[in-house]
Design a protein that fits this description.
Layout lengths: L11 H9 L3 E3 L22 E4 L2 H6 L8 E2 L6 H13 L1 H5 L17 H11 L9 H4 L10 H7 L14
Parallel strand pairs: 1-2, 2-3
Pfam families: Glyco_transf_10
Membrane topology: Single-pass type II membrane protein
GO molecular function: fucosyltransferase activity
């Protein structure tokens, strides 16, 4: 196990080797929130099956069920381990977790995606104006207990600025 608690680090080369040597990895969140997916989940660019804590969080975000294994689907850690052992010895069943690669494309998002969004938003000055963002945004996008949900619930509004402006 690697991480701050164990004080054992794993550089990118170490991580690459570990991911290549295993069939599954734990993609557990540091905090369980209805609208939070850990960055660990997005190692999907590797063909390895993530194990997450709570299926409903990923389902609410539209992530297909057959992409990951959810720990809360099992009655005990032992039953989860039995399932992992079954998949490890049954290649055909294990490979079903990669059927998503036939339907979706794996891409690496540029880190300046928000600046790209800003540029696109400013290309169309006469675009549709959203009068009430709460009505426009799907409730799945934000939850009542997160900071965004609290802002929206209180009727606050968002101000979009150009990427060159500091926040």
């Amino acid at each position: 196990m690697y991480g701050k608690c164990n004080k054992v680090s794993c550089d990118p080369a170490c991580e690459e080797k570990e991911l290549n040597d295993h069939l599954f990895y734990l993609a557990f969140e540091n905090s369980v929130c209805n609208d939070y997916v850990t960055e660990k989940f997005w190692r999907l660019r590797k063909l390895i099956v993530p194990i997450v804590l709570n299926r409903q969080i990923y389902r609410n975000l539209g992530i297909p069920d057959d992409v990951y294994i959810a720990a809360n689907d099992f009655s005990s850690p032992q039953s989860l381990v039995k399932h992992l052992q079954y998949l490890s010895s049954n290649r055909e069943e294990y490979l079903k977790y990669f059927d998503w690669t036939k339907r979706y494309k794996k891409t690496i998002t540029k880190f300046d995606v928000f600046c790209d969004f800003c540029r696109l938003a400013h290309l169309e000055p006469n675009g549709e104006k959203i009068q009430n963002i709460v009505d426009w945004i799907s409730p799945v996008i934000y939850m009542k207990n997160d900071i965004f949900g609290k802002i929206m619930k209180n009727g606050a509004f968002l101000v979009f600025t150009t990427c060159s402006e500091s926040l």
